[in-house]
Design a protein that fits this description.
The protein is 74% helix and 0% strand.
């Protein structure tokens, strides 16, 4: 029960914030009006508010879990869909769909986005596996540069074929256009997260290296590419509906790991819950700050994410060594206790 306290608190907080989010917006909606059968408010609730809430939760859960998977598989805490070129690749897929299939539906664009996101993520991991360096900072820097190259190609094609205005909706994340019938593809996050939970132990083993996986009989390449594919598909499904949202997959897993450790199965549920809460809070802030207008969530997430990331770095610099020493002492005491028993 002690280990589940944080999970219960996060779940309760998410439920309370979700209820509050349903009644925050330009049009005032009250529980009494909904219960009395007010047709206008019921339509707003069903067509806009409820789909928006579901899209927010799926976005927070999906991007957080995608970042957690990529960090585990790449053995680097600074890797995420943003620093791993996954988001940039998904945007390129959307542009290709707009160029070659102008009349395509959201599902047609999603197919292109899935393909390019998976391919871009695979190429990034394939490249860093063949570059001989050990500096933890170099891996995300390579991902950022690779993402900028893909972004440059995307912008070039958009300018050449006069698609910049059409592409702009997916360059900045926002939930203002989330309506019933235009967001359901983000529900793919659910089964993909469940699949990630099922193979969480395999991801842990693969995260310890190729030789370690081989000794335990785990197919390294199969699990690696399966995990990367799950993370890429989650990211692409979010980008197609909401657009680009940075920092979530980078910040949330690192914060949760400070309390729950690095075992992916033990922290996956808490990561998903905290990610949903983080995105939900940022969305409500964007709706309230300059009401009745609305700020894009990418702006709010960028500001809060930057501050949290700086605080996280300072905390690691100040307490990282102490935390390692405590872990060693605890491990020694456990061994001594086992011998005594």
């Amino acid at each position: 029960m002690k280990g589940r306290t944080l999970t219960i608190l996060l779940a309760a907080c998410l439920v309370l914030l979700s209820v509050l989010s349903l009644f925050v917006g330009v049009v005032d909606i009250s529980a009494a009006s909904l219960l009395s059968g007010n047709v206008e408010q019921l339509e707003i609730f069903v067509i806009s508010r409820l789909p928006r809430l579901l899209a927010i939760i799926c976005t927070g859960v999906g991007m957080s879990v995608a970042g957690l998977i990529m960090q585990q598989l790449c053995m680097n805490k600074f890797v995420s869909p943003t620093t791993g070129a996954t988001i940039s690749s998904a945007q390129l897929g959307i542009l290709l769909a707009l160029l070659f299939m102008p009349g395509s539906t959201i599902w047609g664009r999603a197919v292109f986005s899935f393909a390019t996101a998976i391919l871009g993520t695979w190429i990034f991991v394939w490249f860093i596996q063949r570059v001989q360096f050990k500096d933890v900072i170099m891996v995300p820097l390579v991902g950022i540069m690779f993402g900028n190259v893909i972004g440059g190609v995307t912008n070039y094609l958009a300018y050449k074929y006069e698609m910049t205005q059409a592409l702009s909706s997916w360059l900045v994340g926002h939930f203002s256009m989330v309506l019933r019938g235009r967001y359901e593809i983000v529900f793919l996050v659910g089964p993909l997260v469940v699949l990630a939970f099922i193979f969480a132990n395999h991801f842990n083993i693969v995260g310890m290296g190729r030789d370690f996986s081989k000794n335990l009989g785990v197919p390294y390449n199969v699990v690696l590419f399966m995990g990367l594919t799950i993370a890429a598909m989650i990211t692409a499904s979010v980008v197609v509906v909401v657009g680009s949202i940075s920092y979530i997959g980078l910040i949330v897993p690192n914060i949760v790991a400070m309390f729950k450790g690095d075992k992916i199965r033990g922290m996956l549920v808490d990561t998903a819950l905290f990610g949903a809460i983080f995105v939900l809070v940022c969305d409500m802030v964007g709706r309230v700050v300059i009401a009745p207008y609305e700020l894009p969530i990418e702006l709010i997430v960028g500001i809060l994410g930057s501050l949290l990331f700086i605080a996280l770095l300072l905390y690691r610099l100040k307490n990282g060594r102490k935390a390692i020493q405590i872990g060693r002492r605890t491990a020694k005491s456990d061994v001594a206790g086992g011998k005594a028993a």
